Amino acid sequence: MNRRTFSLEGAVFAAPAPPAGLHVVATPIGNLRDITLRALDILAGADAVLCEDTRVARTLMDHFAISATLIAYHEHNAAEMRPKILARLAAGEALALTSDAGTPLVSDPGYKLVGDALAAGAAVYAAPGASALLAGLVVAGLPTDAFFFAGFLPPKSAARRARLAELRMTPGTLVFYESPRRIAETLADCIAALGDRPAATARELTKKFETTRRGRLSDLAALYAQGEETRGEMVLLIAPPQPEEADEATLDARLLATMQTHSVKDAAAIVAGETGLPRREVYARALRLGGK
Ligand code: SAM
């Protein structure tokens, strides 16, 4: 088989040589038909393909009969490999960067390589395609005008709750990558840290057992507490805070600031006067905050 060709449904296509530089190429997140024609051109035409796991990449290449030179580039060898890759880019090669699935750099290696390649004056190109982040967002039914991708949450509950508390007032839909095996515990922490918001889980996107669940966090927690749907890969999406929550956070911030220089009682009186809220209510809130 010649280099610089790919095969699609029995037909063989010649791939043009891509321009010199680093080509960040998205690959499918399950359904191989989500590969793009441009991705095939670049994977077949590049001088080499940098990939996380050569066995995973080889399976994809074989599917499209691409005989690319594969080079492993992953978090364990990245520091050692980067200078070698930069030297190849400096020599005018066209290199493709892929990850095991989806878009490289999105919870996957590549960010430092792109930064170093740019700093070294190499061209960097995107060949966009599948990403679980956007696929999850479009099926969730939650606001899409603003969203915050927070990657994976910490595996331990205390650290997870702390991270969720930091994200509580983020003014957009929260998007996480999560393991279905851990989703029941994570949902419990989400309710504790964020309140019972609308949410969705999108599991096995683009694959045979694709399942999207939508409801309040408590509905999803009840579902996963039964121990079902624990296999595969998952995106967790959570609606932004409601306006009342934002008001509460602002009130807390004012109380905390005022309590820096006044007693709890005086601070509550001042903030109650400023906001027109009942003094007893503000005092109770200040006591709770003061007790933290
Ligand atoms: N770079 C990839 C992307 O663009 O989506 C993500 C890589 S990250 C290491 C892998 C995580 O993405 C999985 O643990 C899961 O949370 C999510 N993921 C990947 N494929 C998925 C799929 N088909 N359905 C749902 N989530 C998926």
Report what the structure shows.
With 292 residues, the protein is α/β, with parallel strands linked by helices. It has 3 domains: 5-130, Tetrapyrrole methylase, N-terminal domain (Cobalt-precorrin-4 Transmethylase, domain 1), CATH 3.40.1010; 133-238, Tetrapyrrole methylase, C-terminal domain (Methyltransferase, Cobalt-precorrin-4 Transmethylase, Domain 2); 248-289. The chain has helices spanning 37-45, 54-63, 78-90, 111-119, 132-140, 157-167, 183-194, 217-225, 243-259, 264-275, 279-290; strands spanning 5-8, 11-14, 21-25, 48-51, 70-72, 94-97, 124-127, 147-152, 173-178, 198-203, 211-216, 234-238. The strands form 3 sheets. Strands 5-4-6-3-7 form a 5-stranded parallel sheet, sandwiched between helices. It has a 5-stranded mixed sheet with strand order 8-9-12-10-11. Strands 1-2 form a two-stranded antiparallel ribbon. α10 crosses α11. The longest helix is centred in the C-terminal third of the chain and has 17 residues, at 243-259. The model has no long low-confidence stretch (mean pLDDT 95). The structure holds S-adenosylmethionine. S-adenosylmethionine is lined by residues 29-30, 99, 101-103, 106-108, 131-133, 177-178, 202-207, 233-235.
